[in-house]
Amino acid sequence: MSVAILLAKVLAAYLLGSLSGSLILGGLRGVDIRTQGSGNAGGTNALRTQGWRFALGVVAIDIGKGALAAGLAWLPPDGGHAALPVAGLLAFACAVGHVWPLYFGFRGGKGAAVVVGAVAVILPAALLVVVPVWLLGLGFSGYVGPSTVAAALVLPLTVPWFAASADRPALLVAMSACALLIAWTHRSNLSRLAAGTEHRFERARILGRWLGRGGGP
After folding, report:
1. Cβ-contact 19, 114 below 8 angstroms
2. If both were cysteines, with which of 37, 139, 203, 217 could 49 make a disulfide (CB 3.0 to 4.6 Å apart)?
3. CB contact set of 164 (below 8 Å; sequence gap of 6+)
4. 37 Rama class: left (phi>0) / alpha (psi -120 to 50) / beta
5. Quick one: pLDDT at residue 150?
6. Rounded to 5 degrees, what are φ and ψ at 157?
7. With contact defined as beta carbons under 8 Å apart, do 69 and 94 qualify?
8. What residues contact 217, with CB distance under 8 A and at least 6 apart?
9. What does the alpha-carbon distance between residue 148 and residue 92 come to, in Å, rounded to a whole number?
10. What's the Rg (C-alpha) of the chain?
11. pLDDT in tens, 40-65
12. Residue 157 and residue 169: Cα distance in Å, rounded?
């Protein structure tokens, strides 16, 4: 793949990432969720401030654009050569666009849903590990942000298990970059967790409550 084509695909992935689901849907109803709740333009804040239907639409858009951005790696010309490593780079570019969207003053979300969509295309088997880690973290603690960070940091560890040997080095770099980006965008959640002020979804803390009762009915 030529450098020009690669750069064009990276730019396209970034621009796709800049299409923030919460800000697009919020614009249709005259709401900017960056002025509400936590101020983040992501699915969790959308759920808290606008309800589950709105949040579902936000997450669908953000996962979809991540998948679409990764899929650009297979588009011609030269779509078949080193497609998986290129897809990893495009996933990161899309996540960057989501966090710093060109169309919305470079104030976006935290990138987790975008990475999930991209991984579903690049390394779908990794989701069999990453998603349960997130669900277990949420079920035990009720904390969305820290559970998301934990799941993100597990992502690079799945590459040696599920990627072909020729693709592993580049994918390890790309997935590590995505994981570190997610950890960085959730730094305020981690700070609040350390301070004991992080918001907890108590209804999601099913496992934690069950264990707290000794596993009884």
Report:
1. no
2. 37
3. 84
4. left
5. 97
6. -70, -20
7. yes
8. none
9. 17
10. 18
11. 777 888 888 888 898 899 999 999 99
12. 12
Question: For residue 29, what pLDDT is reported?
Answer: 84
Can you give the pLDDT at residue 33? 85
Q: Are 109 and 94 in contact (CB under 8 A)?
A: no
C-beta separation of 89 from 5 below 8 A: no
The CA distances from residue 86 to 31, 79, 81, 126, 176, in Å, are 36, 9, 9, 18, 14
Over residues 162-179, the pLDDT tens digits come to 999 989 999 999 999 999
Structure-token pair, residue 133: 């880690």
Predicted confidence (pLDDT) per residue in 26-42, tens digit: 888 888 888 887 777 77
25-59 burial, b if ≥16 CB within 10 A, otherwise e?
bbeeeebebbeeebebbbbbbbbbbbeeebbebbb
Q: How far apart are CA 135 and CA 108, in angstroms?
A: 24
Tokens of residue 208, six digits: 């934690």
- As a whole number of angstroms, the distance between CA 106 and CA 41 comes to 11
By the 10 Å C-beta count (0-12 exposed, 13-18 middle, 19+ buried), 152 is classed as buried
Please give the Cα distance from 197 to 133 (Å, whole number): 23
Helix (H, G, I), strand (E, B) or coil at 196: coil
